[in-house]
Specification:
By secondary structure, the protein is α/β, with parallel strands linked by helices. It has 13 helices and 12 strands. The chain folds into 2 domains: 241 residues, Rossmann fold; 119 residues, Aspartate Aminotransferase, domain 1 (Alpha-Beta Complex), CATH 3.90.1150.140.
Length: 401
């Protein structure tokens, strides 16, 4: 019965073997277990970084380079670089992988889309990046750019699928308005979108009618309601400010603070969990947030001094968001409740960097509602019709129960 279940899940995409090995396998694990046999005789490029590892933490480029009959031709790296260590927004230059000697083309430098020259001679592009599940996280924009470029150049794209970082199919927040499409908003999906990279690729290919040959190497033994740390995978930070699964659990909401005069915790050991500003009252803010009785989180009054980014070297008041149940956290609800609480407790203090905030939110209506004084409940309810339409749109692209 177990074998039949695993085969049924695997049959949703590329079938690369039976039921040997662990009950759960990522797309990369499945390919590596077959020694990349379906790619023999092909020149392969990989779009990856430090998160593109198998369950033994061996990197995709090294695995490809050691596979029989497969040629590793190029590596393409997203924001934060091939190592995943570059700061957010910092441009990354081309380089060379010291382990394989293969050129590393940055897709977060002078180019954000592979050029025809970069793709010359490549038969297949493998995309293997751990997404965080939030629309502003730019790995999805890189995936769109790869699909577009590959389609233009006649290169196949195989997405090696990975789990939802925060766990669950929870969908939250506004759906992107087309007028606000950007590199932090690549497609009309919800702020917390609830899609694996493979599912997102299927949706984008169809909705944009991209002429690309796409193959999703699906996970085996995966259910979307299984917490990430129950898969047996080790969490490898996809960027410097997503160090833990708890960070990933709140990021899709707390990223909105980047568009305000509040510190989102960059320059602390708890990014997106330690939040505030020099003028925020920690005790009053924590008390008001506790009244909301939000699931999966607790709020502690906190003071902190960022060593970088906003309020560098200044003492800030605020709260620390302690995650007590990742699968039940509604990250966007947490963020909107926090912003409304700060606004109400500190009249005239909360300011928006309108262009940045609206691009992150994917709508102008959230900022306008907060400026107008709308409650968190009113704001969250206003998104429900668009979220229901998004659920219906995306349902046919889902690969896992």
């Amino acid at each position: 019965m177990k074998c039949q279940f695993l085969r049924a899940v695997g049959a949703l995409s590329l079938v690369l073997g039976g039921c040997a090995g662990p009950a759960f396998r990522t797309g990369l694990d499945r390919l590596a277990e077959e020694d990349f046999a379906p790619l023999r005789g092909k020149r392969v490029g990989v779009v990856t970084n430090a998160t593109g590892v198998d369950r033994e933490l061996r990197g995709l480029p090294s695995l490809i380079a050691s596979a029989g009959g497969v040629t590793l031709a190029a590596i393409f790296a997203p924001e934060h670089g091939f190592s995943g260590a570059s700061a957010a927004g910092k441009l990354v230059e081309d380089s060379r992988d010291p382990a394989t000697g293969v050129p590393v083309y940055s897709l977060y430098g002078s180019q954000r889309k592979p050029t025809r020259e970069m793709l010359q001679g490549i038969d297949v592009l493998l995309f293997d990046l751990q997404d965080v599940g939030a629309r502003p996280y730019t790995y999805l924009s890189t995936l769109v750019a790869v699909l577009e470029a590959a389609g233009e150049c006649g290169v196949e794209v195989w997405v090696l699928d990975r789990p939802l970082a925060a766990g669950g199919r929870r969908i939250e927040g506004p759906v992107l308005e087309d007028s606000l499409r950007s590199f932090v908003g690549p497609h009309a999906i919800a702020l917390r979108h609830g899609l694996t990279p493979g599912e997102f690729a299927r949706l984008v290919r169809d909705e944009r009618t991209l002429p690309v040959k796409l193959r999703v190497v699906s996970m085996e033994g995966y259910r979307s309601d299984v917490p990430y740390d129950s898969t047996g995978l080790v969490w490898v930070p996809p960027s410097p400010n997503i160090p833990t699964l708890d960070t990933a659990a709140v990021y899709s909401g707390m990223v909105l603070l980047e568009g305000t005069n509040l510190s989102e915790g960059r320059g602390t050991t708890r990014p997106f969990q330690l939040v505030g500003a020099p003028w925020v009252d920690p005790e009053a803010t924590a008390a008001k947030l506790r009244q909301a009785k939000l699931e999966g989180v607790l709020f502690r009054p906190a003071r902190f001094i960022p060593w970088d980014s906003k309020y560098e070297g200044e003492e800030c008041g605020g709260v620390e968001i302690h995650v007590t149940g990742r699968s039940s956290v509604e990250a966007v609800r947490v963020a909107v409740t926090f912003l409304a609480a700060v606004r109400d407790l500190h009249p005239g203090k909360l300011e928006f960097r309108a262009e940045t905030f609206d691009r992150l939110a994917g709508t102008r209506s959230l900022r306008e509602a907060l400026e107008r004084g709308d409650s968190a409940r009113e704001i969250l309810e206003s998104w429900q019709p668009a979220l229901e339409a998004y659920r219906k749109r995306s349902r046919k692209y889902l690969l896992y129960p």
